[in-house]
Amino acid sequence: MEQLSNFTTLKVGGPAQKIVHAHTEDELVNFVKAADKSGEKILILGGGSNLLISDEGFAGTVIRVESKGNALEFDACSGGMIEVSAGEDWDEFVAITIAKGFADLESLSGIPGTVGGAPIQNIGAYGHEVSETIARVKAYDRKNGEVKTFTNQECNFSYRNSVFKEENGRYVILNVTFQLRKGESSLPITYAELAKHLSINIGDRAPVSDVRKAVLELRGRKGMLIDSKDINSNSAGSFFVNPILSKSEADKLPQDAPRWPQPDGRVKTSAAWLMEHAGVLKGEKFAGAQISSKHVLALTNSGDAKAEDIIELAKIARAKVYEKFQIKLEAEVQLVGLDLN
Fold first, then answer.
1. How many CA atoms lie within 13 A of 174 on its CB side?
2. Angle, CA 210 vertex, CA 185 and CA 75 arms, to 5°
3. In angstroms, rounded to a whole number, what is the distance separating the alpha carbons of residues 298 and 282?
4. With bands split at pLDDT 50, 70 and 90, how would you rate the model's confidence at 225?
5. How far, rounded to the nearest angstrom, does the alpha carbon of residue 327 sit from its chain's CA centroid?
6. Could you tell me if 109 and 94 are in contact, meaning their C-beta atoms sit under 8 angstroms apart?
7. Does residue 259 register a pLDDT over 90?
8. What does the pLDDT average to over 141-163?
9. Which of 160, 212, 219, 318 is labelled catalytic?
10. What whole-number distance in Å separates Cα of residue 310 and Cα of residue 304?
11. 185 is catalytic
12. Active site residue 56
């Protein structure tokens, strides 16, 4: 049986009982239908970049999404409407849009994974989220046995969340349509670190190519790019989501804790800040698992880690934060056969 560690950026995960490769949308739907008909559990696997699979592997059918293709239509009024297959590499797609003269995805450069995974998690970075650019999502509804197209509003996007994540396992993403601007200027830069790197003020715009270059540089410094020469990149990116707190909870934080007010009156704070101020150290290890030496929010495989090592290190970090701040961090990474509790 094939080891799932071969398909994840953490390079851990036991054997797959069965693995199939879907090269087209029709193949993807048919594989899912066949598994559902036979009563098999299924695991949809894209880039494996936001995934921690247990050492026991997966007792069911793993369907690897490898569908390719994108269609680009542009007119001066509507901007670029680009339908992209779920199996396309995310960052390669971002690079193509910029090369073709489109804007709006530049802040999301360098995020590992596939296009199909982007709306599930509502991926975001440096002050912007993919939901800002998605026009519609086409998915197979396993519950009703039909293909459905979701408008942006129907996707129910929120911070690192969507209807596809809320109803986990029900929908299989087939393709995503983006609406992008034609132009050389980025979206407004709202993230202080990125603005400083670009030597501009918050709220200003910059050339799209400059923003992409800056984002890749910043992500590289944090070990948040896939790089075979950097052991810190053997990670699933940010392991925990930034907590969103009630105002009363946020008021209990130290004065220097990051605070980002939300539209509903709640306050988002930084998981990385909480970890650092609770005594979680860069480079800290548990067996083969390690806190990245570049970014405290990334848990890495230092070379011989098991999934259990990584989950135990996550529990240790989580417990330190709870003891210090009474805030329970939640995993951003999808856990398969594992539980933080």
1. 20
2. 35
3. 9
4. confident
5. 22
6. yes
7. yes
8. 97
9. 160
10. 11
11. no
12. no
Q: pLDDT of 63-114, one tens digit each?
A: 999 999 887 665 555 568 899 999 999 999 999 999 999 999 999 999 999 9
- pLDDT given at position 258: 95
CA-CA distances (angstroms) from residue 295 to 13, 102, 212, 306, 337?
23, 31, 20, 21, 26
Q: Which one of the listed residues 5, 238, 292, 302 is annotated catalytic?
A: 238
Could you identify the residue written with the tokens 């979206």?
187
Of 170, 115, 132, which Cα lies nearest the Cα of 148?
170
Q: Is 162:178 a contact under the CB 8 Å cutoff?
A: no
Whole-prediction pTM value?
0.93
What local confidence, expressed as pLDDT, does residue 66 receive?
97
Reference 173, options 132, 214, 139, 209; nearest CA is: 139
Give me the sign of the Cα torsion angle 184, 190, 195, 197: negative
Averaged pLDDT score across all residues of the chain: 94
Give the whole-angstrom CA distance, residue 314 versus residue 328: 12
Structure tokens at 87: 């199996």
Burial per residue of 211-245, b for 16 or more beta-carbon CB atoms within 10 angstroms, e otherwise? bbebbbebbbebbbbbeeebbbbbbbbbbbbbbbb
Digit-coded pLDDT (tens) for 227-249: 778 888 789 889 999 999 999 99
C-alpha to C-alpha distance for 76 and 182, rounded to whole angstroms: 8
| CB distance 271 to 241 below 8 Å | yes
- 221 a catalytic residue: no
Distance CA 144, CA 47 (A): 27
